[in-house]
Amino acid sequence: ICSNTKNTNYAKFEKRVSWQAPFRRAQDGKQAILFENEPEELEKGYVASRVYQDKSMGELVNQIIVNTAVQSPLLVDNSDLMYNATKTILGKTLSGFLVKKTVGRVFTGGSTFEDVLVPTKAYNQRGIPVFLDYVAEATAEHIPTEEEMDYFTECFCKSAEIAAQHKGNGISIKFTALVDYNTLKKTNAVQQQFLDFFDDAVNHNAEAKEASLEALFNAMKKKNPNLEKQAFLDYIKQIFRRDVNDITADQKISRFDWRLNTHIFNISPEMGHVSPLVQSFAKLDDRDMKEMKRFTERLDKIFSTSRKLNVEVLCDAEQTYVQAMIDSITEQFGFKYNNDTPIVINTVQNYLKASKSRVLFEVEKCEKLKQPFALKMVRGAYMVEENRLAKEAGRPSPILESLQQTHNNYDSNLEYLMNKLDKKSQIYVCSHNEQSILKTIDMIESKGISRSNGGVKFAQLMGLGEHLTIYLHTMGFNVYKYIAFGPTDIMMPFLIRRAQESRQMLAGSRLQGKLLKKELKSRFLNK
């Protein structure tokens, strides 16, 4: 669709930067080692390499101003009010133009598919692949219409076609752009309820590996007193392929098998989308069924297109009140499309208390199915909302108690996955945290994992962590740039929410600001 589009704007990006020399590592035999005084030496390397020397003076000044603004809690907290006021005073067209030329130039790839070709080609020519993220999602203020969901499906497919023009590029999608949000929340509640039946059956004993059919039936019947014995047996026969004729205490189902096979909505119509037993709990009406069917059809179109083009699809994580259903659907499409090389890649939010068990399950699942595993590892983006909702409901927060616990959990889960890596499995380390990146590098080096094709890939958002991207690329690691793009009226609310939920990430842009100012200073001194 876009292969014949003419672009002249990317020419200014083509200038090569001499990145290598400041970052060259000492060699100890065959083992590369890090600088002895890592943070100070790295910063010297960043300054010496002039990370931002390919930017024009206007781009440089604009990014300094934007970078300074996003570090102000007052501005970030009130950015939505400021944006809405700007639209009211200047009008949608003029305010959109100003946003695109300021904040948009730093954090986005533009508003159109033609726009995004510019940074995409720039990074690709440097040997850095990208993930194209067409920003479309449901919000509390707006749930996409059926027509919009179909349009977003085409946009994701078009993103895959653009990505396929350079080897290694991929795309990112948000499921909430493709399904009615209320239907997703409704089905998620039932999916989570069915997952929880196992814990109910073993009296919430986290160490229990198996539950009896009798205990599972009793747990379900407690929630649905009208549940009949035969309906339960039919469900076990259909889902677990067990030839059972009675409910006894000596017949067991493992925790792993329950988690692996519990999908309240089957993407395959041959199996029947929803079993009679599930329907007795869910009470999905015709509209819900049609919504879920269209949802999975849209996803299948995106994944099948990406499979043909050999383009990986990163599936973004959401809030816990919809994530169980997202995991269920993603896993089922993983069963379908990830047999040889991963195309459908799910996300783990490591600020969640349940993330450790999630990682363990993903590895065990792929070992049993003889598929390579692939996970995108992030810290998480909904901490404020998750904590608020938990407090309002009077239940424990699903989020770890402290930032340090999240850091430790992130590093621990990464190390476990690295120990399980095979030739085709992949881990995406999506982080702007320099210490996490350095720890990951240490693990890669100590475990003898190949930097360029060992299965560990780094990624940073466009506009953030440019120095980290350059460092990783220069040192021979596989690193991606994540480019968000889309219409300004959709993009800005997206950026504002991410800024308000990701203060720690924005705080990390202080070094970036320092490097930008040093670049500006060097230009005046060199004149």
Major β-sheet, in short?
A: 8 strands, parallel, barrel
Cα gyration radius (Å): 24 Å
Number of helices: 24
Q: Low-confidence segments, ≥5 residues, pLDDT <50? A: 1-39
Sum this structure up briefly.
The chain is an alpha/beta fold and 527 residues long.
Keywords, separated by commas or semicolons:
24 helices; 8-stranded parallel β-barrel; 56% helix; 10% strand; 527 residues; alpha/beta; two-stranded antiparallel sheet
What does this structure look like?
The protein is globular and about 85 Å long. With 527 residues, it is an alpha/beta fold. A hairpin with a 2-residue loop joins β1 (27-28) and β2 (31-32). The protein has helices at 20-23, 38-49, 57-69, 73-77, 79-90, 92-101, 103-107, 113-125, 146-163, 181-201, 213-223, 229-240, 255-261, 276-282, 286-309, 320-337, 355-369, 383-393, 403-419, 434-446, 466-474, 488-501, 503-507, 510-526; strands at 27-28, 31-32, 130-134, 170-173, 210-212, 252-254, 312-315, 344-349, 374-378, 426-430, 456-461, 478-485. The chain is built from 24 helices and twelve strands. Strands 3-4-7-8-9-10-11-12 form an eight-stranded parallel barrel, surrounded by eight helices.
List the helices and strands and how they pair.
Blueprint: H1 20-23, E1 27-28, E2 31-32, H2 38-49, H3 57-69, H4 73-77, H5 79-90, H6 92-101, H7 103-107, H8 113-125, E3 130-134, H9 146-163, E4 170-173, H10 181-201, E5 210-212, H11 213-223, H12 229-240, E6 252-254, H13 255-261, H14 276-282, H15 286-309, E7 312-315, H16 320-337, E8 344-349, H17 355-369, E9 374-378, H18 383-393, H19 403-419, E10 426-430, H20 434-446, E11 456-461, H21 466-474, E12 478-485, H22 488-501, H23 503-507, H24 510-526
Parallel strand pairs: 3-4, 3-12, 4-7, 7-8, 8-9, 9-10, 10-11, 11-12
Antiparallel strand pairs: 1-2, 5-6
Helix pairs in contact: 3-24, 5-6, 9-15, 10-11, 10-16, 17-19, 19-20
